[in-house]
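Form 12-C: Joint structure prediction
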Amino acid sequence: MTAPAAGPAAPTVPEPSHIGGESRRGDRVFFAMTGASGVLLVLTIIGIGIFLVVQAVPALRADTTNFLTTKEFLPEADKPTFGIAVLAFGTILTSLVAMVLAVPVALGVAIFVTQYAPRRLAGLLGGLVDLLAAVPSVVYGLWGIAFLNTHLQAVNKTLNATLGWFPLFGDTGGRYSRSILLASVVLAIMVLPIIAALTREVLLQVPSALSEAALALGATRWEAIRTAVLPPSRPGIVSAVMLGLGRALGETIAVALVLGTTPAITARILGPGGNTIAANIAAKFSEYAQAGRGALIATGLVLFVITFAVNALARVIVIRSARKRLG
Amino acid sequence: MSTATLSDSSVRPTRSVSTGALSGVGVLAVLVGTAVVQLAGGSNPALMVVVAGLAYLVLAPAVVLAVQGRRAAVDRLFTSLAWGSFLLALVPLVSVVALVVKNGAKRFDLDFLTHSMRGIGPRDAHGGAYHAIIGTLQQVGIASLIAIPIGLLAAVYVVEHGRGPLVSAVQFVTDVMTGVPSIVAGLFVFTFWVLALGQGFSGFAAALALAILMLPTVVRTTEVVLALVPDSLREAALALGVPRWKTVVRVVLPTAASGITTGVVLAIARVTGETAPLLLTALNFDSINTNPFQGQQAGLPSYVFAQAGQPQAAALDRAWAGALTLLLLVLLLNLVARLISRRTRLKG
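Section 2 - Result
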């Protein structure tokens, strides 16, 4: 605008060059600030990696045994011996059992809210499930240890009595309190709303014309969902499940409150056993001194790498499917 | 619904199982559930509901199979499963809220809200969460002051810049940060702030960890809402000679304000309940500490965690009351977010 259109009552018009100069300076400052915020975000994630590595290395150097295979966790001994075997196994086992419990229900909830629930209520019902995600993890932990533990013991006992031949439900020496299954149930409840909400978004992306076409061809409602709605949603659902898994792997406080800790690798989920990386950090941090905390940081680094990989994989799945759709 | 009748009638137009018949099956399932449990010598109502539900899952498709055929029976089975999953998902929600209210009410009073834990052992009655409430308000407040401006600016960068290596890097990092476990954020602040910079444990350290957890949520929701602002608004402002930064601050952000506020409030609600990072950064503390920059400080979540870890009944009562306080705070924030989003013009 070299010659601004001055109306009859136009106020004094500043020099054009002045407008340009000021705005360009303002733009430069403003967008430098936005760029700096972006850079800060990137630096944070790099910083997490670097600082954890820097603090973990001395602890790992002091470790007298193999970090990956040792079951003991005694970083404060005269000859520090600690390994991640028990913790990594416990983390993966509790999360996998939680996923087995949560995924079918979460998918059912997402299908219900998007396909079966009355249109008008769908938003409200979905919001109700979202509320599950709003409950803090420490509250779930308290509920798990003070309420669910008592009730689940009877279930554990029955499962062992009737399905004891199944390896996971094997004999635990009569101890059913604070079981691995209890931790998994609590984890399942916590990841369920996350998977359900993400899957819901994915299902809503499918054009309704697809399922309407299936219905018009004589499909039942379920057949329409199975043949028209679910196939295009598959990558999105897989990525939702992966994100849920990432959350389960990293959950700390609920597990720390609920799980009885014994330093052993056992797949018998009806009794206490093992521990998770995250819960171990929360439980031991305040009692350990420098050497112990270094060891905890080393385990935290492993957790960071695992969850990073799981989340990155979830993102890759989504990007790939988007590319396939475009190409 | 018209689609329902379409699909039902397309299977076998002449006969179908009415809603009345299905509710008959439901009553039958309840009877089966009660009978089975009582015959087995039990009287647990929860068990009866479970057995009745399973009985319905079998009986309803069986009836439909007899009347309408296999395809309709499969359809009925999956309809019931979808309803069942939803109802099942509500069970823990109702149970948690009911128990927190019931057990929390015992100690949730003015005494609890206005006293700290100074000089009170796990066995003693009394004691409260005053110090923890102060801590949580300060920690979450500072975290918001850090995370909201940075998150907003980063989102503006991503949306208004369009393309470039830094844009995709920020988007990737936002995704990855969403998945960073809260305990790892706590460990990072411990290694960075406490160990490397030698700043010691404090409420501010906790706020730093909470800010890291808030950032991805703020960036992501702001990004989504900003992308919804029509380009015509930006173009109109730019055509009037308004500088780009002013276009963003005076036109784009206000248009998206309610959507952004909703996302921000939800992010605040999420970190209010975070416990793990507090344990590594502010530790816990029994007395009031009103200075977030100096010394250990309690927080409501770490208070609940500490009390729940004690075997004594008095401590457990405090844990429930603390949980009730925390839940009220978080649900209030969620309610606020929902009210704001209802007034929003740009829907995501």
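Section 3 - Comments
Confidence is low (pLDDT under 50) at residues 1-10, 14-20 of chain A. DSSP finds ten helices and two strands in chain A.
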